[in-house]
Amino acid sequence: MTNVQYKVIVGLEIHVQLCTKSKMFCSCAVEFGAAPNSRVCPVCLGMPGVLPVMNRQAFEYAVLVGLALDCRIPMFTKWDRKSYYYPDLPKNYQISQYDLPLAANGFLEIPLESGGGKKIGIIRAHLEEDAGKNLHTAGNFSQVDLNRTGTPLLEIVTEPDMNSGAEVRALATELQRIVRFLGVSEADMQKGHMRFEPNINLIITKDGAEYRTPIAEIKNLNSFRALERSVNYEVRRQLDEFLETGQVMEMGNKTTRGWDDEQEVSVLQREKEEAHDYRYFPEPDLVPVELTPEWLQQIRSRLCELPLQKQMRYVEQYKLSDYDAGVLTAELSTAEFFDEVVRDGAEPKRVCNLLTQTGLKIANEKGCTINNLGVTPEGIAHLARMVEADTVSSSSSVSIFEVMVETGKGPEVLAEELNLIQKSDAGELERIVDQVLAENPGAVEDVTGGGKKSKKARGFLLGQVMQKTRGQANPKVVSDILDKKLD
Ligand code: ZN
Ligand code: MN
Fold it and tell me: Which residues make Cβ contacts (< 8 Å) with residue 40, sequence separation at least 6?
């Protein structure tokens, strides 16, 4: 076998559906699952003589994402027509942005599995309108649902800075977290709110010479799993193809491939169209958008602490593990809930345990988020402080949390009602310890005799005290008393 090494090069195009109430250029509602062709009007149906009007909210959402991706936001952008001939967009062109996108030259930092982060360049982000949906489920003919036609889409194009399927997936996941944190998209994969098109090739070193394989673009992926797997598949396929045929990148041998989710293979679709095939030209029906410094500032003021920043802050400031910090920041309302409990003076690590081990578990079972469980951040802070003060044990705090959700009662009341207040009264516990020692002379002998059996016997005695108090004794206090008595 000859000496072959390779490096994977991947760039990604992402379409994100923005969660505006109405469509990009008309006032039709953006609504998933409505009766086919019930959310349409002459504008999005492409009737002659109608005029589009820009959705200001969509524009502001797009700029907000651009700012979050550290992009340069030009003060002047315009719209272009992209020729498009397909029944799902009846006016035969898509309004998009060609040479003056609303955001450019940014980056997105992704968390790496090895720890740390990596910056992925963002070439541009622009707004456009979505097409409708062709349905091929009716037998010998196709149907078209134009409800989605004209929905605002943000297209984001990255630099080819990713070097594995895992990195591509990390970028997609991070972007989902960001647009959700910003509240500009539900980013629900099942509803097609995020669609991915990776372009992949390899730099192969063979016997000291370097070769580049032809770039393949995989169209229209709508899950993280398909995205990662298709990239990994394409890497193997290109390597095999190169070793078999020696084919390398030349002008015009970029290809477009589809992903077969069942067979887990990519399938050749066609040679790539070059940009001039789309015959872009400036959209005559829409005025360019001119940002003012005030307007831009107003949008900028809506930026929040981004998920990865938050995650890293939790690790540094609160000494949480990267995993825990990731769980808390997977979703904005959970992170905000955590922030509020901590602001209420509870110890962060304790709060993290309560929320990740108990709160999220209950929330998952109920299919909601922590902020919808009916418990307040103050209540959880109070519970956390009760554990810190040894008023209740951390295992009791789980039951209290659960009953707080069921009843809406406060932690203090419940600790009383459920008999979960820890006994820390040394006098009372001493009497119980004495009783246990009197009942178990053999174990006492083992402890005082020292040696192998000592540790086990001591544990047994402690267990007996806990049992007699039905787990309500503070183990630390009991342990101290035992030490004193058995010394
Ligand atoms: Zn419409
Ligand atoms: Mn596009």
Answer: 28, 146, 147, 149
Residues 6+ apart with CB under 8 A from 358: 397, 398, 401, 402
- Distance, CA 240 to ligand 1 centroid (Å)? 48
Please give the structure tokens belonging to residue 481.
Answer: 């008393």
Q: What is the pTM of this model?
A: 0.86
| DSSP string over 424-456 | --HHHHHHHHHHHHHH-HHHHHHHHT-SHHHHH
Please check whether residues 375 and 453 belong to one and the same domain. Answer: no
Tell me how far the alpha carbon of residue 474 lies from the centroid of ligand 2, in angstroms. 63
Q: Which ligand has the shortest distance to the CA of 129?
A: 2
What integer is the mean pLDDT of 13-19? 98
Q: Which domain covers residue 118, as residue numbers?
A: 11-197+272-294
Judge whether 376 and 366 are in contact, CB under 8 Å. no
Q: How far is the CA of 280 from the centre of ligand 1 (A)?
A: 23
Q: Report the CATH number that the domain containing residue 449 is assigned in CATH.
A: 1.10.10.410
Number of domains in the chain: 3
Q: Determine the distance separating the centroid of ligand 2 and the alpha carbon of 131, expressed in angstroms.
A: 10
Q: What is the pLDDT of residues 352-393, one digit of tens each?
A: 999 999 999 999 999 999 999 999 999 999 999 999 988 998
Residues 192 and 341 in one domain: no
Q: Which residue has the higher pLDDT, 138 or 339?
A: 339
Looking at the CA of 150, name the nearest ligand.
Answer: 1
Supply the pLDDT for residue 66: 98
Tell me which of 394, 417, 440 is where a domain ends.
417
